[in-house]
Design a protein that fits this description.
CATH class of the largest domain: Alpha Beta
CATH topology of the largest domain: GMP Synthetase, Chain A, domain 3
Radius of gyration: 38 Å
Number of helices: 15
Largest sheet: 5 strands, antiparallel
Number of domains: 4
Strand content: 15-25%
Helix content: 40-55%
Order of helices and strands: HHEEEHEHEEEEEHHEEHHEHEEHHEHHHH
CATH architecture of the largest domain: 2-Layer Sandwich
Oligomer: single chain
Structural class: alpha+beta
Length: about 425
């Protein structure tokens, strides 16, 4: 029975990767509990486990007495003599005997195995937790094995990783069996298995991809100073070269864009702007707002605010589609950016726009009102100005402002 028990425990060591000495300590603890259950909490004993020999020895120590009052802690001198008192022990001496495992009975042995299995499960959970906790922020590669309504389960070295909806790249399609790359975002202890959360939307994932694809970043020749990202849509990465001979942006983009394209493909065609970092806020903000042309930037370093002055035809470039460009610029630089629009003189517009061409944008009712009041082109409306447009019945100040903004935006798109 001894060797069978130890062998079953040794098999756990091989399968679970538990340290042999740790397991021996657990066995000692579990069998110590058995002794206490049978001989009481105050019993004196010693459990010796030899994993190499596959042996468990349990020794119980009791005091030799004439008359036994507590059989758990005492043994009679007559009983000792019956067993063969080779050491000539006397009343008052300690008697140590080896207890056969069979003496504990089947029920207690099963209890020991259950206790050990529970301990092993706890150790296994700790091993998994520590393994992935050390991988925080690192890329792992796994296989998608289950698609849920919101979450995706990924198999990595027979461990289950969770890719929640908020850590996925929006609109990215996933298929069962596909290989996927992500970073270890968080590891949590739970009552069951550790919860390992991975991410493809975190900024660190983009940083690690740059390190993989661009050797100069991995080697520390080029530093990533800041990252701003709206996953699946656009990202801005500020880089700085530690070697004046190396162009940081050029190295990141690569010959014919081959390096950056590899990252873009991994991120479901997310647009990535790589810019040169500058410690000067004005220069940094100007680069972050590219490709828009800025006329002036007023910086409030104390409150981390910047007022950007630009021609009205540049505002749409500064803001970007759905405001993404300016949001990323603010995240990247750490400055709150306010836009001050300078109106472009009418004579600087190269071409006029017929109102019929923007009828859909204006709406049929507004278009008819303007046409009926002899406004045929966009420039005619702008030159008339708010005061003249107020004379048109059915147009209030708010609606006039909306019309003028809409027409200006059409000129900006033409640019």
């Amino acid at each position: 029975m001894n060797s069978d028990i130890v062998e079953s425990f040794a098999q756990m060591v091989r399968e679970k990767g538990v340290d042999k000495d740790v397991l021996a300590g657990i066995i000692e603890e579990i069998f110590g509990i058995l002794v206490k259950k049978k001989y009481g909490e105050e019993s004196k004993f010693d459990v010796v486990v030899n994993m190499d020999k596959g042996d468990i020895e349990i020794f119980l120590e009791r005091v030799i007495v004439d008359l036994v009052e507590d059989p758990n802690s005492q043994i009679s001198i007559d009983e000792v003599n019956k067993r063969g008192n080779e050491d000539e022990l006397e009343v008052g001496d300690d008697f140590v005997e080896k207890l056969p495992l069979e003496s504990f009975g089947r029920r207690l042995i099963i209890l020991a195995k259950q206790g050990l299995n529970q301990k092993i499960r706890e150790i296994e959970k700790d091993i998994v937790f520590n393994e992935y906790n050390e991988l925080l922020g690192e890329i792992v590669v796994g296989d998608i094995y289950q698609l849920r309504k919101n979450d995706i389960l990924v198999n990595h070295n027979k461990k289950e990783l969770l890719l929640p909806r908020n850590e996925q790249i929006p609109y990215e399609r996933y298929k069962k069996g596909e290989t996927i790359r992500a970073i270890i975002k968080e590891v949590k202890k739970t009552n069951s298995e550790p919860l390992i959360i991975i991410s493809r939307s975190d900024n660190t994932f983009l940083r690690r991809l740059f390190e993989i694809e661009i050797p100069e970043i991995y080697d520390g020749i080029i530093d990533i100073k800041a990252i701003a990202r709206e996953p699946g849509e656009r990202a801005k990465v500020a880089v700085e070269s530690q070697d004046n001979r190396i162009d940081a942006v050029g190295a990141c983009v690569g010959m014919k864009g081959v390096r950056i394209h590899a990252i873009v493909r991994e991120l479901n065609n997310e647009n990535i702007d790589v810019i040169n970092y500058s410690s000067d806020p004005t220069t940094f903000i100007q680069r972050a707002l590219a490709p828009a042309k800025i006329k002036k930037i007023d910086i409030d370093t104390h409150n981390k605010k910047a007022i950007v002055t630009a021609d009205s035809d540049q505002v749409s470039l500064i803001v970007g589609r759905n405001g993404v460009n300016i949001r990323l610029a603010m995240k990247l630089t750490g400055y709150e950016i306010e836009i001050l629009r300078e109106e472009k003189p009418f004579e600087e517009y190269d071409e006029d726009i017929e109102l019929i061409d923007i009828k859909e944008e204006l709406g049929n009712d507004i278009y008819e009102l303007l046409i009926n009041h002899r406004f045929d082109t966009a420039l005619e409306v702008l030159k008339a100005g708010p005061e003249k447009l107020k004379e048109i019945e059915g147009l209030d100040e708010k609606k006039i402002e909306e019309i003028i903004e809409l027409i200006k935006s059409q000129f900006e798109e033409e640019e």
